[in-house]
Amino acid sequence: MDISTFLVQCLNSIQYGLLLFLVASGLTLIFGIMGVINLAHGSFYMIGAYLAFSIAPFFGDRFIIMLLAGVALSALFGFILEWVFFSYLYQRDHLQQVLMTYALILVFEELRSMLIGNDVHGVKAPEWLSGGVALGDVMTYPVYNLFASAACIVVAIGLYLVVNRTRLGMMIRAGASNRDMVRGLGINIRLLYRIVFAAGVALAALAGMIAAPMTSVYPGMGGHVLIVCFVVVVIGGIGSISGALIASLLVGFVDTFGKVFFAQLSGIGIYVLMAIILIWRPEGLRSKGY
Q1: Cβ distance 245 to 199 under 8 Å?
Q2: pLDDT averaged over the chain?
Q3: What's the start-to-end Cα distance of the chain, in Å?
Q4: φ, ψ for residue 139 (rounded to 5)?
Q5: pLDDT of residue 86
Q6: pLDDT surpasses 70 at 45
Q7: How confident is the model at residue 141 (pLDDT cuts 50, 70, 90)?
Q8: DSSP state of 265
Q9: Which residues contact 212 (CB under 8 A, 6 or more apart)?
Q10: Averaged pLDDT for residues 174-201
């Protein structure tokens, strides 16, 4: 493998890992703070991709404005969804949470089929993000992929600042540690949960919107993402955002380079990684803190 190919694979690993982080950070917030096992989280990624396909023609090359509009719509959808469905799950056992969120997967898939159909679609990247950056004499790397990585980094920094440097973040951390004490201090824990859930949905949908121009938009695309994101959450540590970031990048490198060097065994690479880390640290890479 020459240096250009190695660099391309490293960039692919980082880009894939950062996209996984957007989805997994929302999942770890919902699971770690609200205690809800949300099997429908991958569907929010799918909804984001289909949302990008649906509204992109109305925005043209104003891609960033399209992303912001999609995030706002997704957050509103998450806010309403928590109020209508998930607010009834907090006192239920995990089996009921699994059954209800699995039922939501079926509902979302059926609605997608009724509204858009079962065809595979593509989303065109804006003109100002077309083209590539030269890597060596013959290889180039798409500008849009670099933009996707940069956007994910910006969101990750913003998420870190919100969770660790704001009053809302302080309440989120406190709610994850002791929700009864937070309620006793007069904080509206229901509203806090609603905000956290809306943020988790928005992060997953944003990842889908960013990924749409790089991949096809197709039925069931949230299923594989959900499985990998649970792997990321388990490796990183339940409720840890920094752990999710580290785990996402590890999974990105293992999966990308596994497909290059061990194509026939690449499907089990991330699960071998999870097994090794859990044998070493059963609580995950970051058992405490964000």
Answers
A1: no
A2: 87
A3: 37
A4: -100, 145
A5: 87
A6: yes
A7: confident
A8: G
A9: 48, 49, 52, 53, 56, 123
A10: 82
